[in-house]
Amino acid sequence: MIRHRITFSKFGPLRYISHLELQRVWARVLLRAGIPLTYTQGFHPAIKMGVAWPLPLGWTGKAELIDFWFEYPNANGETPAAEELSARINRCAPGGLSVVAIRTLEPHGHALTTVIDTADYLVEIDPLQAPADLDNRIAAILSRPIIERTRRKRTYDLRPLIETISSVGPTAFTTRMAARDSAMGRPDELLDEMGFEPLTASITRLNFNLLPGE
């Protein structure tokens, strides 16, 4: 049994499927690719996988992460190289799902969500809402000591969840936000605080940043 961490992109029509539906897509793709999967024990065995934080509906992801345990070496003692696995998966994947890289890990390492620290995002503002003072709005947000918000009927401070914000033109910016179990920053909430309508913006998660040594 070998644990593989797959980096993949999610875009196009697949950006409108849920986190649970995406897991089902992955299961079908891997089975179609003929990759021997490891299953959980018990009365209702399921494909053993470890998923990263969900990508909200409508957002795209450039470097999403998911862990699978493959039953390699096979009966012939063979273990395909990462490049071969990537090619086999991509041949069977639907439009909007593409493997970027595959990394081999120890089978019993830390769970994926426990080693994610932050995430980077590209936020593209609707041109009709494009302000002339984007840099000033960014500076104003970063200067606030507290940004109190309510999520799921619970009040929290958004400010410590924002690490960086940098404009990349008059209608877009990048931001690095916390992506931990107890501290999850969301760029749509940041947009709202900056005076923009989040639903009209395009948000892409560029990558996850893992803890040192992971």
Structure description:
- With 214 residues, the protein is α+β, with helices and mostly antiparallel strands.
- The protein folds into two domains: 2-109, Pseudouridine synthase I, catalytic domain, N-terminal subdomain (Alpha-Beta Plaits, 2-Layer Sandwich); 117-210, Alpha-Beta Plaits.
- It has helices at residues 19-32, 82-92, 112-115, 134-143, 187-193; strands at residues 2-10, 49-51, 60-70, 97-105, 116-124, 148-151, 154-157, 162-167, 172-180, 183-184, 202-210.
- Strands 1, 2, 3, 4, 5, 8, 9, 10 and 11 form a nine-stranded mixed β-sheet that branches.
- A hairpin with a 2-residue loop joins strand 6 (148-151) and strand 7.
- The model has no long low-confidence stretch (mean pLDDT 94).
